[in-house]
User: Fold these one by one.
Assistant:
Number 1:
Amino acid sequence: MLFQVRPSAPKEADLTTVYDAVVVGSGAAGGMAAHVLTSRGLKVLLLEAGRKLDIESELKSMEWPYDHPRRGEMPSDSHAVTLNEYTVRQPPYAQGSPYKHVYSYVQGWNGSDYSKNIVVDEKDHPYTGTKYAWVRARNLGGKTAIWGRLALRLSDYDFKAKSRDGYGEDWPISYADIAPYYDKVDLYLGIGGHKESLPHLPDSLFQRSPRLNPSEVLLRQSLKKMNRVLTPYRAGVTTDGLKHNKYRSRCYGRGACNRRAGGCDIHAAFDSPTGLIYPAMDTGNLTLRTNSTAYEVTVDPATGKARGVAFVDTETGQHYEAKGKAIIVAASTLESARLLLLSKSKAHPDGIGNSSGQVGHNFCEHVMGPSILGRVKDLVGKPRTLDDGRPGGFYIPRYRNLDDRQPKFIRGYGFEGSGGTGMVPGRASSTPGFGADFKKTVRDEAGAFIHMGGFGEVLSRYESAVSIDPAVKDRWGIPVLRFDYSFGDNEKQMALDMAATGREMFEAAGIEILASDADLLTEGWSIHELGTARMGSDPKTSVLNQFQQSHDVKNLLVVDGSSHVSASCQNPTWTIMALAWRSCDHLADELGRGNL
Amino acid sequence: MKPEDADGLTRRDALKIAAGAALALPALFTRDAMAGPAAFAARAAAPRFLNKEEFALLDELTETIIPTDGHSPGARAAKVAAYIDGRLSEAYLPVEADVQQRWRDGLRRVDALSRQMNGATFLAASPEKRVAVLTRMAANEKDPQTDDEKFFRELKGATVHGYYTSEIGIHQEMQYKGNTLLQEFAGEEPAD
């Protein structure tokens, strides 16, 4: 295997001691909290609900389809919930299913047999309410084991959006507050990209950029004339390597990155274990406990402060409490809201940190659906080139509601896409006919296709919410979430504009449009849940302050996407990590000053 | 182009890494070594779900959909029928019994249509007449209505999947160049 450096031997958790901090969740946010706090010399216990997987052998990033007995597909007793099921049914999606295992739709991407141990089995993890494609990863590293790797910054167009259009709330920080932390994340984890100097999509401190294929260059040149930008995929992938991290290799452009749901067995693509957690273990300050599902933040009745985290060992069924001077919740946007709401006590009757009544509310994400497929005639029949030896294709940053005001919707959207050949010609089964002509057409056209799909900001609305279901429990007896969430008119209007401008851009570039779709994909499809415990200056209308610290409970922080005040239209992972770094720096200062 | 040791790894190290991986999985890096796993080859020897006659018909159908041409071998050489038969044999029962039945019925229907059009089974008909049968079944490919048309869609989908994920499909037909260690990323730099 390539670059397999093993982490230091894990320490046993000592549940009699009081750690400086107990962190719940080991994804981008929890991993970052562990990194920052241990590097400041604090003793940290990290609890992860899932297993520690041997991720390199799970992912088998370079396995050829024909070396797998089902060409990469899951065993037939396993089922991935389809778009149609999500659209016509309500959760719990595994209810009544005859299959042995039921997984979220991510497993349907190429029928992946490689990530089935990473995402949860819906049978064990039900939820209720309105339809929602909720993708959860329970393993060390959470969804960073399978993420899409697009690593973008937000700007003051996002942080101060209310000041621009009057809707919602401004963030309690501005770009200047977080910019130094974006820089730290760039340098510590590595990001490839191309400088564009855009005020609404600030550049990172880039390593080498992935390159563009000919159809993408064509579109980039054409967009310039429309004052729009197509930039190479800004990937949270180290393309030049990281001298300070022995667990991660640089990207070798092996290609086929999009063949399965994320993942990279040489860890050139960022994942939380090799990027953050193993180095944190090497400090000697981190204790990790996996198979530990938190279900309550416990409270010291005398002070009302957080005392610890109650959790169940998912292998033995035993219940425990881990104690910390500070409790850091980083269980993912929706799981964190669930944990806060479940943590009811005399001091916090509606759930810890919830005196505002805002926990679970203002739930937002990105809307997807509109997409365009085109063919570049000049590329038909050209000799085969290697088009996918890179971590991603391209990104077209937002161009709506910057200096203009759209009449029918506020906020913006961007496009992700790619052109050129992959390992398998994706258009073959929809190429009409059969026989030698069919075969030749598939061969000749494979390098000529270009495709892109939109990601738009879903407005944060109080009524978009999750709450605790009064009756349904998961496999471990923990009450589950009930969804009350759907897209509104702004998203629908925005999607119509996405479809129209997507077509317009292809047409202007002379790209023949083969298909375009204006329909929305179901709620949850972007896997970018945000905003159920938002930050703000006013404790009456927000859950956390600008350092992701609970307004009600000083020693409680929530450092994941739930803290985001609005969704913006840029992918959230890099912002989650920059914010967590800033907040944990602040927490370490406060602990040092004895202010908790 | 960046220096090759940008991350402290020399080109030699990278080659060593490649060689190491090649030792572990010979099929990864050289086309000549791609004989495919023994288990898969053995499985291809005898059908596991279909009977011999059904399998022979399926084999001919896949080859008619993706034939050998001057560029590369077709679906028969890529053992697409064995792949489809293998997947059918692993259907999750009783839930997916209908899938197995649909394929049995579909194959029977091909012969019925061939008899009706050509007075002979599909395999007994001339190549031109076989094409005529499939052409009829493919009539409404985009929006199949009849059972014959629906079976063609399913048959073609499975054939396409089996073929283009096979060694022949990936390497000989599509001449895919990726899934290997590169020193540089493919594609062009943005001009500015």
Note: Chain A has a mean pLDDT of 95.
Number 2:
Amino acid sequence: MALWDLANSDCIVVMGSNMAENHPVAFRFVVEAQRRGATVIHVDPRFTRTSALADLHAPIRSGSDIAFLGGIIRHLIENDLWFRDFALAYTNIAHIIEDGYEGPEENDGLFSGFDPETGSYSHDTWQYAGKTVPSSVSEHRVQMQESSKDGDFESMTEGPPPTDPTLQHPNCVYQILRRHYARYTPEMVERVTGCPQEVFLKVADALARNSGRERTGAFCYAVGWTHHSVGVQIIRAATIIQGLLGNVGRPGGGIMALRGHVSIQGSTDIPTLYNMLPTYLPQPNVFHDHASLADYLRVETPPTGWWANMPKYVVSLLKAWYGDAATRANDWCYPFLPKLTGDLSQEPMTLAMASGVVRGQFILGQNPLVGAVNADFVERGLGKLEWLVVRDFAMTETANFWQKGRLIERGELRTEDIDTEVFFLPAAMPGEKDGSVTNTSRLVQWHDKVCEAPGDSRSDLWFIYHLGKRLKQLYADSREIRDGPIQGLTWDYPEHGAQREPEAEAVLREINGYRVATGEQVPSYKELKDDGSTACGGWMYCGIYPKAGHNVARSRVPDGPDGPGSHLGWAFAWPSNRRTLYNRASADPAGKPWSEAKKMIWWDEAKESWTGLDVPDFVETKRPDYRPDWSTRPHGMDALGGDDPFIMEADGKSQLFVPSGLRDGPLPTHYEPVESPVRNPLYDRQITPTAKIWEQEGNRLNPLGDPRFPYVFTTYRLTELHCGGVPTRVMPHTAELQPEAFVEVSPELAGELGIRHLGWTVLSSLRGEIEVRAMVTERVRPFRIDGRAVHQVGMPWVFGREGYARGAVANVLLAITGDANTSIHSTKAVTCGLRPGRLSAGRGQP
Amino acid sequence: MTTLPHPGHAALAALDAALARQPRQDGAALERATTCLSAVRDGMIAEMRAGRAYGDLTKLNAVISVVLAGRFPLGEIPWDELRRARGWLADLVERVEP
Amino acid sequence: MAKRIRKGIGARVAGFLHDWSIPRQLAGESVMGTAARSRTSETLRPRLEEADRVGTGICPFCAVGCGQLIYARNGRPIHVEGDPRSPVNQGTLCPKGAGTLGMLLSPERIGTVLHRAPRSTTWEAKPLDWAMERIAQLTKRARDETFVETLPDGRRVNHTLGLGSLGGATMDNEENYLIKKLFGGGLGMLNIENQARI
């Protein structure tokens, strides 16, 4: 959904986010919805400005989100409050799952398919009966070995998955959901989360009351949902609620991810990530059946749904990267692509760096000594590098680790003993370069170069382009096969001015794609081919530069007050400039809007096409009553009916139950955080059995029940200071507004421990200790969990030792762990010790 | 850079320890193996920069890739690959640390 | 003379009270309008009038994507404000976005290349060209020393785990594209990550 579409919501639940403080301008739309009568709810451990502006604040203990959301799912089902016409038609609620499926109710807190020896799941019993369902998410395909079982996915072309529309079949998703969430009663929600059940029920009822044909509700979340060992499953729990309530693909409905950096969405789409090629194509893996392009495409291309087009996107990407070198005879240079062997995401690579695996490291506008967990461990790894290049605009803790690091300060390392060669390259900032950035709702906006960067500051585009030119020259005379990729890489971008700045628009034109023969822009990804005739650097962005001289990201025509409010003339939203994904779901199965109040797109019988207030996310001319002819073994979009809105899924249905693609279970289940002072009240299993735990020297976890670490510890940002922090810590205004680090402690806990407001405290974990002043405040309250008081403390993680606003690095306390699906670390719910006073001279490990 | 007396043998021993635990992952053994392999590589690179050929280095880098995949697997732990890498490493260690 | 001074003082006090904005604000005039006017304010001009250039910016902090207008004079930024046309922010900015000018002009900003040699205790300023060439050489050497073309049994991997890159979420799509293209597609680096995962 677009950010401004939040204003069309009738109920907004902000959870896992302090939206008013951290995304204040987006929060305007929440306030606007509230003025129009919407109910605004904040579910959060702390009482923040978001809570203050909400109609209702539901406090929950950090890390208990799935218990809360699972309680809502149960409430909706048991009280029959779900939007039946929507969910029956558009989700897999009636689908029948394999006979052998068992959930945590039947299987001691685990799903069927668990192998206790390896700690991992097989997905065989999670499938639709008789089918093998491909995952639509490339990131998940990269992580799974199922993709090497090629051929099975063809079962999706044989007929629709079996369903029971009466919902009586014991293994239909509806009945499985009922059983799975049966114990998530309001009483249990209170016991696990600490939220009084009457408050919880108000939230559940507000959501139910504000959903259906005439009304829609939305969730807004940030890293308060993702930074957990079960982050993906927390978001999944919200998708189940939204699927049940019909809040997907409709005005004011959806799940809004409030992301933290200007182009964090863009750098996910066009990924500087290890496991994907541009726009969600899986990075090949040598241990999968990916030896040749044909193998890779055969096992990775889902036979049904939109992703059946994948070969066109892969071949067009290879043509964009390797140009004339890429021919049909050499598999379009597919062998050039580096193949994965394992998980190389940030957390594993931090551990590998400390083992000496990485010799040279680039750090481009990121500051892991503040932003990454277990800062001391990260620092140790930096000292093992042969060289380090940091590009930033002011000194960062990371660039300066060798002289101002914590290990140096503690005397554990001496500057004179650190072999790392370090470069600091000054970077040009926004306003000093042009280019496009993608916001959290997929809106790609161009920005101009207005002024000059000081001195030797250069854009990152300049840096990477000129580094590439030098490297191509260094490798020009090589006869080694291994140097083919750098020699073959297309790298001809026009240069301008005395500094020979490469032309950003030329790069965007390549991302958009062009016809190889004529060089003319491709107007739409529908015209991409798998025969080498088109080149395209990122198929989902195709259409952003549809013809010469037309950069749609530059367009700046907002709708007027009486316009449709989709602002189709303002910048470009991928794909195809559509603002709401899966908006086919805004119409009923027959193609009519669910209601006049909530119309978005609809079937126009006279024109025989879909039309409306947004760009339809569907085949424009596909009739609502189209049904696949299963006798022909249909592939691609032919296998989806005219009433299957979720075109990226193999059967066009939203997945309340996920048969493939998740490593930790087909349904969200409450497990305690990897560190918790509480025994899991719901199951005997304490933590998710698939969490990535990497305990080693310097990265130990605080054990359950350890009296040294009795408190829940959580971290967060501040309105004035941004993330890794250096840009805002060197801005005079923002630094003055938040000059120093602090820890928020409840009056109850402060009284118990003898901590005074603004007095010094020491926080500790097995990873390290920090000292910081206390903010004693009622914004933080103790929770009553399973009959006893559980205290929680919280601290902003944005401080460091560089810049004007300084203070302890909260992430020193955190451990390197990973969510099973994404390897994302846990920062929102760990445990800590707390005492009044300061660190002694021999500061360090407890 | 880490200096160990016989990092190649130590890496081999660590890898053997990890393989003996199959199907359970032995994170500590794999961590030890990685660190030792890096030390072997540091030594080989130093020699190579002093002018010696680096045929073995390519093989060592392959071993590092596979051992790291065992330590940080995508999906199942690639046991067969780890065993194969153990064989490559054994050949290599015989030559560099006879 | 004394009288004239006294009269002068009286007139000045009267004038001051007349001009002083607080009494008018207390009397109910809007602080956003006429009550903010004073003799000093009469002579003030908006600083953006001095600009010789204005362009569209996008706020560089969170992912909401607020539109900004950046005003510059002689190539130097003099003013940043919210873009009133943008349907995202309609002219508004949060404290971070409103402080963008302070980031661009921060006294802490570094405009030269700094280099720290192994075991050295200080940074040293270096020419950009020198640094670029040295980084290219180091990159090539590290790649060549850590590259795996095939596993010993012949399976092609074409990768290096000896080089890493971290960062991207603060940068433009075009920059991310070239990083992935050069580091991944050209050099065979896999260890490429950014803030999106964390």
Note: DSSP finds 25 helices and 31 strands in chain A.
